[in-house]
Amino acid sequence: MNTPLKQHLIDPEVCIRCYTCEMTCPLQAIEHDDNNVVVNAELCNYCMDCIPVCPTGSIDEWRVVNNAYSLEEQYSWEELPEQQEIAADNGDADLDALDEAMAKLLADAHQGAGGKSKAPASAAKPTINLYNLGKPVEAVVQGNFRLTEDGADTHVSHIILDFQGHPMPVLEGQSIGIIAPGTDGDGNPHLPRLYSVSSPRDGERSGYNNVSLTVKREEHGICSNYVCDLKKGDTVSVTGPFGATFLLPDDPEARIMMICTGTGSAPMRAFTMRRQRAVGSENGGMTMYFGARSPENLPYHGPLKKVPENLLKQYLVFSRVEGMPKEYVQDRMLMHQAEIGEFLQDPNGYVYICGLRGMEEGVGEAFEKIAKGINVDWTNLRDSMREEGRYHVETY
Ligand code: A2P
């Protein structure tokens, strides 16, 4: 008998056939026909590059098998087979070791993908993958405004795209893909880069078919520089919408806590505008912890000052202001342990974290400390909050 193998599979019932995984796999281990997208067990080396790019999570399926499912078998499936009982001739220890190794790989891959959280129960049903690489939609740039001040060390732009007669049913918290023109070093077209929308579902301007993005110019970033250089009237190839979990509850009584850095504020802006337009100030409450280098580098610093306190409680923290101690969002959270402890125990409290990859760990540690203060095990609480659609992480 072969050594048991943990085989990577794709759920054909959930997969939306965007082929992003296939384009991302460095080993060409993923392929498709008209029916399914499949993984070649002989080529897959568990590098996990395909896990975070999948907009549905269908990529994240695993079965322990004695003999790998062939490509032909996978092509014929309409649903995934159940996990079979594995005869443990090789000893349970082998399987345990395999599980442990896979659990670590998966945990690494899920860093920043937010783990397996679910959408809030009352969230609107998202449309996903209406447009893909083979069939993008053209949008026209309506405007491109620099958000960070001229002398600031970061350049963040607010770009508004008009979809004209084409539907773009995007919800707050979802992303769209931008395809930079030209080809990469190997002569292949660039893959779409995903950006969270920063406008609410009824448009940047209410009732208009337009969407805004908040994009930071990255040194050598092909797509971010392309987007930040766009001019009014330019046309842009767009894919999406993507994302089915980082969504706002429609329940006006839901309490929202938003924790973000830099351009991670994009979905938080969308959430706030949605609440402001659809619910007004009579709602369960929204609180935001927002970190930036300085006020000049904080996107939407001016407009945020005009958002009323009874709609959004704001804690803006800065890490690089001369004469002031460096402060991160998690530092400020630790100053509010009693309030946050109470919030975590409220079944109507929803947490959203978006921004730099590193903040996930720091914010998680702050929550752990706060949970400990109320005699609650953070890992259990976080997992049940994820299961209930109340804990969402998107970091990059
Ligand atoms: P820092 O001054 O240490 O870079 P950026 O401007 O690069 O997008 O970053 C946004 C903010 O996030 C900055 O204030 C940055 O601080 C801060 N930051 C960097 N690393 C972390 C982290 N691990 N946790 C929380 N905030 C962070």
Outline the structure in words.
The chain has 396 residues and is an alpha/beta fold. It is built from 10 helices and 15 strands. It folds into 3 domains: 5-109, Alpha-Beta Plaits (2-Layer Sandwich), CATH 3.30.70.20; 137-242, Elongation Factor Tu (Ef-tu), domain 3 (Beta Barrel), CATH 2.40.30.10; 255-395, 3-Layer(aba) Sandwich (Rossmann fold). The strands form 4 sheets. Strands 8-7-10-5-6-9 form a 6-stranded antiparallel beta sheet. The chain starts with a strand and ends with a strand. Bound molecules: adenosine-2'-5'-diphosphate.
Short summary:
Helices cover 24% and strands 22% of the residues.
Q: What count of helical segments does DSSP give?
A: 10
**If strands are numbered along the chain, what order do they take across the biggest sheet?**
8-7-10-5-6-9
Uncertain segments of ≥5 residues (pLDDT<50)? 109-115
- End-to-end span in angstroms? 42 Å
Fraction of helical residues: 10-25%
Write down the CATH class of the largest domain: Alpha Beta
Number of domains: 3
CATH superfamily of the largest domain, by name, is Nucleotide-binding domain of ferredoxin-NADP reductase (FNR) module
H/E series, N to C? EHEEEHHEEEEEHEEHEHEHHEHHE
Examine the secondary-structure arrangement and name the CATH architecture of the largest domain: 3-Layer(aba) Sandwich
The ligands found in this model are: adenosine-2'-5'-diphosphate
From the alpha carbons, calculate the radius of gyration and give it in angstroms. Answer: 22 Å
Strand content: 15-25%
Shape: globular
Sheet with most strands: 6 strands, antiparallel
